[in-house]
Amino acid sequence: MAKKHRSASEDEPPAAAEITELGAATKLSTKDYERELKKLHIELVKLQQWVVHKGLKVCIVFEGRDGAGKGGTIKALTERVSPRVFRVVALPAPTEREKSQMYFQRYMPHLPAAGEVVIFDRSWYNRAGVERVMGFCEPDEARKFLQGVPLVEHAMVDSGIILLKFWLEVSAEEQERRLRDRVEDGRKIWKLSPMDLKSFDKWDAYTEARDDMFAATDSSWAPWFVAPSEDKKRVRLNVISHLLAHVPYQELPAQKVVFPKRKIGRYQPADHPFRYLPERY
């Protein structure tokens, strides 16, 4: 019999309740962060097993300004689960053929089937943000998109998809610090795209686009959840704990694992001149 997994508060898993005790104003140490993240990762594995067992369909949308921390949050969310269950979708710019299609058409094939969690690193909301602000679509196209989104998402939810939409909110000062850090840190330079530079001075335009998007698409069946991301460690923990609290799951009974007895030595390895890697470390 499956074990129901919930904390004393039905809205929060145990690890989430402990995170809140750390205090919002307290800077998380790496040790505290890794301790809490490990607890949440264990719960994500239980969630993964339940999703497969029950054939759930989960769709998670991450949106936010450049440098808000979407990529790091998604990495923290997926680093200990199976990529065959937790699938990340980050679509490139549309091809000429895709530009001629119905706008939502290129996203539909990526929606989850039974037993899948699909994570969109930016999504159909590109039209409400980047495309609108940077002039990649006409104002009328952006307006029609906002009118149609609630209907599409209602159909998704009616089909059995559990849809969660996260907006990572970062201040202008912190965004600039992170973007400049991408230039100075050789490990992060690939994150700085030409589009980041072109959109750098369009803060107000993005704010207006965000507000219009929320007004049109923050529905009762597919609400937006805003996650302050000034502290990267904290936002990752908060997003994962929120996910665990909003996708119902139970802990499946663990099966006893018994390793078979190994029989080694019946075969003698060939005397092949293996090319071993130089041990530089």
3D architecture notes:
- This protein is an alpha/beta fold and 281 residues long.
- It has a domain at 55-230: P-loop containing nucleotide triphosphate hydrolases (Rossmann fold, 3-Layer(aba) Sandwich), CATH 3.40.50.300.
- Helices cover 42% and strands 13% of the residues.
- It is built from ten helices and seven strands.
- The protein has helices at residues 14-20, 30-54, 70-78, 96-99, 130-134, 139-158, 172-184, 194-198, 203-217, 232-246, and strands at residues 3-4, 57-64, 86-89, 116-121, 161-169, 224-228, 250-251.
- A five-stranded parallel β-sheet has the order 3-4-2-5-6, with helices on both faces. Strands 1-7 form a two-stranded antiparallel sheet.
- β3 (86-89), α4 and β4 (116-121) form a beta-alpha-beta unit.
- α1 (14-20) packs antiparallel against α2 (30-54).
- The protein is globular.
Quick structural summary:
The protein has 10 helices and 7 strands.
What keywords describe this structure?
single chain, 281 residues, alpha/beta, Rossmann fold, two-stranded antiparallel ribbon, 10 helices
Mean pLDDT metric: 91
Give the strand order, joined by hyphens, for the main sheet.
3-4-2-5-6
Low-confidence stretches: 5-10, 13-23
Q: Which structural class matches the secondary elements?
A: alpha/beta
For this structure, what is the CATH class of the domain at 55-230?
Alpha Beta
The H-level CATH homologous superfamily of the domain at 55-230, spelled out, is P-loop containing nucleotide triphosphate hydrolases
Order of helices and strands: EHHEHEHEHHEHHHEHE
- What percent of the residues sit in helical stretches (DSSP H or I)? 40-55%
**CA(first)-CA(last) distance:** 48 Å
The description of the largest β-sheet is:
5 strands, parallel
Total strands: 7
The third-level CATH topology of the domain at 55-230 is Rossmann fold
Count of helix runs: 10
User: How much β-strand is present in the residues?
Assistant: 5-15%
Instruction: Indicate the overall shape.
Output: globular
